[in-house]
Write a structure and sequence with these properties.
By secondary structure, the protein is α/β, with parallel strands linked by helices. It has helices spanning about 20-30, 65-70, 85-95, 115-120, 145-155, 180-200, 210-220, 220-230, 265-275, 290-295, 295-305, 310-320, 330-335, 340, 385-390, 395-405, and strands spanning about 10, 30-35, 50-55, 60-65, 75-80, 100, 125-130, 205-210, 245-250, 255-260, 325, 345-350, 355-360. It has 2 domains: about 10-220 and about 340-405, Rossmann fold; about 245-250 and about 255-325, formyl-coa transferase, domain 3 (2-Layer Sandwich), CATH 3.30.1540.10. The strands form 4 sheets. Strands 5-2-1-6-7-8 form a 6-stranded parallel beta sheet, with helices on both faces. Strands 9-10-11 form a 3-stranded antiparallel beta sheet, covered by helices on one side. Helix 5 (about 145-155) packs across helix 7 and helix 6 packs across helix 7. The radius of gyration is 25 Å and the shape is elongated.
């Protein structure tokens, strides 16, 4: 059965996380993704370990977990684009591709004739996606940047962390490289829309200019909009939400749980489950607005109750009362979750180094074009000869000579 992007070819000149995450998404959707890496070195993310994947003999390999996370469903070739012959190979591949993704600093690829303007003049149907820290123009365009920098600059850190006045108060980085991941999702959407816009004649390519900083600001959603409306920045609320009350993590006798009971029905169920049905009629607790106005009282009351029993005890009671609740899981708890197991979130694919490797399946579920084909992230340059011969028509002798001279 076909996948949505069967027949689309993506030339991936990117490395690290945001842009490789984008091309992985397109690969999951069925596109042929050719990942271009530096000979002998490859994507910097290959060295971002430990942990490293172990061989079938139990020895660590050169495949880091970081690299494995965002490079499935791709083929790797090695080309030195800084050489005239290497740049020509990339140029020829661009001419045979629908999409090109790169995350070099603004202006770098122009030196090699691989920038958007140069390639668009030759290949007007090419969709060219640039993913950079600050975008292609502006006073910061030439700056380098990484996810933590953008979490700080975008305001994400300012609304994350322990509230002022509590022990450990202060801004905090989100644990995962969230802006990288969000930028990858924004970029994937942008590319899909550009493919639709290009139309059946395939003659309307365009440049997509993605900025991690702007994606970070946009992803703050209602935090930003509330500021634009009120002129007041939202305070940090730690593990609490900004909607109805409670929407909060609570400490139990042995672990934490997260509880949301913001609607009248949910709060009534919560009150019965914790043995305090009278709270429903208490004017300080009775309505959503009252609970928001008396936030500290509500949270202190519930905290004093939840600490009396284990997380398992409270989860069972709250689930039975149809109150949204979850233990605050570690990774072990995530993959022991029966829903995660039932949905097949963890998949196992063949790998030439380790025999097999576990990956995370794409969460998109199609009824007509299911995403049920996954290949392991490629080893460095493993498809170079095959791609040059089958896509560009180079002879085995040409490939051998390019390899001898260090071009590939």
């Amino acid at each position: 059965m076909s996948r949505p992007l069967d027949g689309i070819r993506v030339l991936d000149l990117s490395r690290i996380l945001a842009a490789p995450f984008t091309s992985q998404l397109l690969g999951d959707l069925g596109a042929e993704v050719i990942k271009v890496e530096r000979p002998g070195v490859g994507d910097d993310a290959r060295q971002y370990g430990p942990p490293f994947l172990h061989t079938s003999d139990g020895e660590p390999s050169e495949e880091s977990g970081f690299y494995l996370s965002c490079n499935r469903n791709k083929r790797s070739i090695t080309v030195d684009h800084s050489t005239p012959e290497g740049a020509q190979i990339v140029r020829e591949l661009a001419g045979r591709s629908d999409v090109l993704i790169e995350n070099f600093r603004s202006g770098v690829l122009k030196k090699y004739g691989l920038d958007y303007q140069s390639l668009h003049a030759q290949f007007p149907s090419l969709i060219y996606c640039s993913i950079t820290g600050f975008g292609q123009d502006g006073p910061y365009a030439m700056r380098a940047g990484y996810d933590g920098v953008f979490q700080a600059m975008s305001g994400m850190m300012s609304v994350s962390g322990v509230p002022d006045g509590e022990p450990g108060a202060g801004p905090m980085k989100v644990g995962v490289s969230m802006i990288d991941v969000l930028t990858g999702l924004y970029a994937g959407n942008a590319i899909l829309a550009a493919l639709v816009h290009r139309g059946e004649d395939g003659e309307r390519g365009q440049h997509i200019d993605m900025s991690l900083l702007e994606c970070g600001v946009a992803s703050l959603s209602h935090y930003v909009q509330n500021y634009l409306v009120s002129g007041t920045a939202a305070p940090r609320r730690g593990n609490g939400g900004f909607g109805g009350i409670p929407s909060q993590a609570f400490r139990c006798a042995d672990a934490d749980i997260f509880v949301v009971a913001s609607t009248p029905k949910q709060f009534a169920g919560l009150s019965r489950a914790i043995g305090r049905p009278e709270l429903v009629d208490d004017e300080r607790f009775a309505t959503v607005s009252a609970r928001i106005a008396n936030r500290d009282l509500v949270l202190d009351t519930l905290s004093s109750i939840f600490i009396e029993h284990t997380a398992e005890h409270w989860v069972a009671l709250l689930e039975a009362a149809d109150v949204p609740v979850s233990p605050v899981n570690t990774m072990d708890g995530v993959f022991a979750n029966p829903q995660i197991e039932h949905r097949g979130v963890r998949i196992t694919v063949d790998h030439p180094v380790s025999g097999t490797v576990d990956l995370i399946r794409n969460p998109i579920r199609y009824s007509a074009t299911p995403l049920d084909e996954y290949t392991a992230p490629p080893r460095l340059g493993e498809a170079t000869g095959d791609v040059l011969q089958k896509v560009l028509g180079r002879s085995p002798a040409d490939v051998a000579e390019l390899s001898r001279r260090g071009v590939i």
